[in-house]
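Take a record.
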Amino acid sequence: MPKLKTRKGVAKRFKVTAKGKLKRAHAFKGHILTKKSAKRKRNLRQAGLVHAADEKRMKKMLGM
């Protein structure tokens, strides 16, 4: 079976942690920030993890 190609859009958006989990950025931080509270914007800065149900699919897209 040939190697899987990496989906470049996915590769730019996700990073693999040392334990093999997928790190991601939060949504809703791009624009319309004036109506969002400082606390909400601060929490959106923190990285999140890809949900376990989606992880297998995302890793396949990364060619892992």
